[in-house]
From TrEMBL, chain A:
Pfam families recorded: F420_oxidored (PF03807), P5CR_dimer (PF14748)
GO biological process: cellular response to oxidative stress; L-proline biosynthetic process
Protein name: pyrroline-5-carboxylate reductase
Catalytic EC class: oxidoreductase
Originating organism: Pygocentrus nattereri (Red-bellied piranha)
UniProt keyword annotation of NADP present: yes
Record GO terms (molecular function): pyrroline-5-carboxylate reductase activity
EC assignment: 1.5.1.2
GO cellular component entries: mitochondrion
Cell compartment(s), UniProt: Mitochondrion
TrEMBL record, chain B:
Keywords, sorted A to Z: Acetylation, Amino-acid biosynthesis, Mitochondrion, NADP, Oxidoreductase, Phosphoprotein, Proline biosynthesis
UniProt source species: Pygocentrus nattereri
Record's protein name: Pyrroline-5-carboxylate reductase
Record-level GO cellular component terms: mitochondrion
Keyword Metal-binding among record annotations: no
Length: 331, 317
C-alpha cells in the first residue's frame, strides 16, 4: 500500500529538483516567495556546480548537492528539471532509489509519461509519474502551468502538484496530448511578449520617449490589458472594441497591425513552437540521440556520477539509450 | 477631498472602479455628470454609489479635483459652461487626447486669473488597478497639485510626470497599447485552438503568459532581449517560433502601430488647435443635449462648415 503525502501536509513535505538550472531556480524562487514550502526543505542536484543558478539557489537556502541520488533520498515530490535528452540517464541512475512515497514530476519538454514509466517499471511496480509544462514567469508567481497524470498517480497526487504550482501562477490539469500545444502557447509565450515589448519600446523611442519610460509603459500596458482579460468574462475582441473610439488613435494603429498580418504571425509562432516540440518528442521516442546533442550537454559530468557506467553510452553514431541490454550497472 | 467627472463614459467608469477598489476615495465623494442618462456606464456608476447628475455645473460645485473626461471636441463647450463656476480650490485635470494645457488655460483665463490645470493620459486597465498614466502640469498648478494627482493615479497603476510634448507618444504606446494586447491574445488563442486546445483554456494561457512576461520585465533590471534569450534554449521550440515572427516583420508592425496612433493623436490635436470642428463631428456628439444645458446658448454654435468655436463674438454668457 502507498503512503500518500496528504495535500494538507504540503508544508511538511520535501521537494527535490534533479537539475539546478533556469527552471529549478525559477520554481524555487516562486515557491519560497509564495511561502508554500521552506527553502531548507528543498534539495537540488546538478553535476555542474558552476552554473550561476546554483549560486542563487544556495543563497536562497536550498540544499545543493552534486548527487542525484541524494536529492532523491531527501524528497517526496521530485521534479525532473533537466534537458530532455538527459532524462534517460537520470532515470537509470535514480531508478533504484525511488520509493512508494515518491511523486516524480517531469518538466522536460517532449518527454512522454509512458517513456518515463517504462524506465521506472524496471525498478518498481507502480511508479507515480506526472508531467508538467510550465513557464519562466513562475519566478514572479505569474506562471502558466498544465499537468498530466500518469497511470499510477492518484487524484491526491494531482491535487498536491496543483497546490504547489497554483502558488506560483495559473495551474490546471490537461490530457497529455495537449501539452505540446500548451508549450507553443504559454511555454514559449513569454518570448513572444519580450520581443513585442522590445518593439513597442522602439516605437515609443521613435516618437520621442526616453527608453526606460518606453519600456515601462509598454510592459505596464500589456500587463494591464492581460489582467483585464483574465478578470473579465468578455471576448478579447469586445475589449479591443472598447478601447477603439471612432476615428481615434487606436483604430488607426490597429489597421496597420492587421495590414501587416500581425495576428497571423502569432498563430504561426504558436504553431511552429508546437510542431518543434512534437519533433523533439518524436526524436526522443525514437530513443536515439545524436552525438552532437550529447556533446552539448554536461555528459562528461553525468558519466562521473556513481552508478553510471560508460558502457551504457556510446558516442558512435545514433546511440540507443533505452535499450535494456546497455542498462546501467547498479552500484 | 471630493472628485468630480465631467463625463460618465468608459474612462470615468474605469477610473471610478479603480479608485474605489483601491479605497483611495469613497464613491459618495465622487460626482459624475453627463447629459445622456441612458449610458450603460452611467447606470454602473450609480450602482457603485457615485452621485450622477445631468448638470456639469453641479459637478463643479461638488468637487475639488475635476476630471474632464469627455471627447476632445466637447471640451470647449464644457469649459465655456463651467468657466464661471471654477474657484481657487479647483484642480482641473483634462484626460482628453490631443487637447493642450494652453488651450484649456486660455479658455479659463477668461474667468479666472490663475486656473490650475493639468493634463493626463491614462488607459483602461486603471479598471483593474494596473493602468499606465502620465501627466503634465500647467502654469498655475503647483507641486502639491501634482503630488495629489499622482497619489490618485498611482492607486490605480503606474503614474509619472512628463513634459507635455511627450503625451502623444505615450498615447501611441500605452494609451492604445491595450488594444494591441487584446488583438495579440485573440491571435495567440487562435494559434492554441489550431493546435488542439479548447478556446477558453487557450485564451487563459495566452493572457497569463503575457501577464507573467510583463510582470517579469517590470520586476527585472534586465533588457527585454536578455529575458527573451533566457527563454529560447538551443534548438528548442521557442527559437523556432521566434524565427517565424521575425520573418514576418513582427517587430516592425508594432513600431508602426505606436507611430500611427501617435501621429493620429497629433492630427486630432492639430484639428482642435485650429479651433474648427466639422459639422459631421459635431453631429456625432450629444451636442443637442449639451445645448440644453443651462448657461449654454445656441447663438454660440452654428452648424455651417468650418465653425470657429473659440471666437470671442460667440462667447457664451
Amino acid at each position: 500500500s502507498c503512503v500518500k503525502v496528504k495535500a494538507s501536509g504540503i508544508n511538511r513535505m520535501s521537494v527535490g529538483f534533479i537539475g539546478a538550472g533556469q527552471l529549478a531556480h525559477a520554481l524555487v524562487k516562486g515557491f519560497t516567495a509564495a511561502g508554500v514550502i521552506a527553502a531548507h526543505r528543498i534539495t537540488a542536484s546538478s553535476p555542474d556546480t558552476n552554473l550561476p543558478t546554483v549560486a542563487e539557489l544556495r543563497k536562497m537556502g536550498v540544499n545543493f548537492t552534486i548527487s542525484n541520488k541524494e536529492a532523491t533520498h531527501k524528497s517526496d515530490v521530485l521534479f525532473l528539471a533537466v534537458k530532455p535528452h538527459i532524462i534517460p540517464f537520470v532515470l537509470d541512475e535514480i531508478g533504484p532509489d525511488i520509493e512508494d512515497r515518491h511523486l516524480i514530476v517531469s518538466c522536460a519538454a517532449g518527454v512522454t509519461i509512458s517513456s518515463i514509466e517504462k524506465k521506472l517499471l524496471q525498478y518498481r511496480a507502480d511508479p507515480k509519474v506526472m508531467r508538467c509544462m510550465t513557464n519562466t514567469p513562475v519566478v514572479v508567481r505569474e506562471g502558466a502551468t498544465v499537468y498530466a497524470t500518469g497511470t499510477h498517480a492518484e487524484v491526491e497526487d494531482g491535487k498536491l502538484l496543483e497546490q504547489l504550482m497554483a502558488s506560483v501562477g495559473f495551474c490546471t490539469e490537461v490530457e497529455e496530448d495537449l501539452i505540446d500545444a500548451v508549450t507553443g502557447l504559454s511555454g514559449s509565450g513569454p518570448a513572444y511578449a519580450f520581443t513585442a515589448l522590445d518593439a513597442l519600446a522602439d516605437g515609443g523611442v521613435k516618437m520621442g520617449l526616453p527608453r526606460r519610460l518606453a519600456v515601462r509603459l509598454g510592459a505596464q500596458a500589456l500587463l494591464g490589458a492581460a489582467k483585464m482579460l483574465l478578470d473579465s468574462e468578455e471576448h478579447p475582441g469586445e475589449l479591443k472594441d472598447q478601447v477603439c473610439s471612432p476615428g481615434g488613435a487606436s483604430i488607426h494603429a490597429l489597421h496597420l497591425l492587421e495590414s501587416g498580418g500581425f495576428r497571423s504571425l502569432l498563430i504561426n509562432a504558436v504553431e511552429a513552437s508546437c510542431i518543434r516540440t512534437r519533433e523533439l518528442q518524436f526524436l526522443a521516442d525514437q530513443e536515439k540521440i545524436s552525438p552532437a546533442a550529447i556533446k552539448k550537454t554536461t555528459l562528461d559530468k553525468v558519466l562521473q556520477q556513481p552508478g553510471i557506467s560508460a558502457t551504457s553510452v556510446a558516442t558512435k553514431n545514433r546511440v540507443n539509450l533505452f535499450n535494456n541490454r546497455s542498462g546501467v550497472k547498479k552500484v
